[in-house]
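fyi for ur records
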Amino acid sequence: MIKLIAIDLDGTLLRDDKTISEANIQSIQQAIHSGVEVVICTGRPIEGIQFVLDQCQMNSSDHYSITYNGGLVLRNQSREVISETIMKRENLEKIEAVMQELDLPVDAVGIDAAYRMHYPKDWPGTYDQLTTYMPFYSYQSDDLQEDYHFYKIVVNTEEEHLQSQIKNLPAWLSQTYSVMQSHPYQLEVMPKGIDKGTGLEALSQYLGIQAAEVMAIGDEQNDLAMLEWAGTGVAMANASDEVKAHATYVTKSNGEDGVAHAIHRFILDKKEK
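which gave:
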C-alpha cells in the first residue's frame, strides 16, 4: 500500500504555463484526506514552491517538502530541517573555475538568496529571469564569507551552448559532485551522493515509511534517482525515453492531468474497491 507520494513540479505537477490543474489539486487533497503523505520534490527552494503549497493546502506542520534536489528536506510550516547537505565556498571556487573555462554562467544558491558568480560576456546567465521568488546578488566567490554555504550551483543558459559544452566537463567534476540536468538549458551541481532519491529516502526513514510504500512521479533526468528508489516510479508521458525506461508506469502528460491519473490508478481507485 502506498503511504507517500513524491511529486516533481516542472513538467509534472505544473502545466507548461506553470499552473496547477483543478484535477491535480483535487487528487492531491483526496490522497491527503485518505491518510497518504504528499510531498513536493523539487530543485527549487521552499520559497519557490509556496504557491503550490498554498493551492494544494500543504502548509500545516504535518506536511514536508524535499527541496534543492534532495539537499534540504524540511517541514513546510515551521521550516524545521529534517535533512541537509551543503556546499562550501571552496567547492564553489573549484566549480566556478571549470565553468569559466567553458564560458558557462554560474549561480550559487543559498538558503535565502542566489549569487551571480560568473557571467561570460557572450553567454549571460538566465537563471535570475526564471527564479523570481528569491533575491539575486552579484558576487565574486572570494567576496563571500568563508563559512557561507550553498545547496547547489546552477548553470542556466542558451540550450545549444550548454549542450555543446557538457561533453567538455572534466571527469573529476562528476566524480566529486552530483551533476545533473534538470532542463535542457540547465545544469545543476550538488554535493556528491545527493539527489531527489536520497532526499526521499531521508524523509521516508524519518516518517517510518518503506521504499515499497512510496510512489514518485517525475519527468526529467534529475527525477531518475527518486523514480528508481521508490517502489512505484511513475514517468510522465512528456518525459524522455530514458526516464520512461526507469519507470514502473507511464502516466498521461503534464497537460493532461497526469499526476491525478497516477494518484487515482495507484491509490484512490483502489481505496474505493
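The CA atoms of residues 7 and 181 lie 18 Å apart. thats all i got for now
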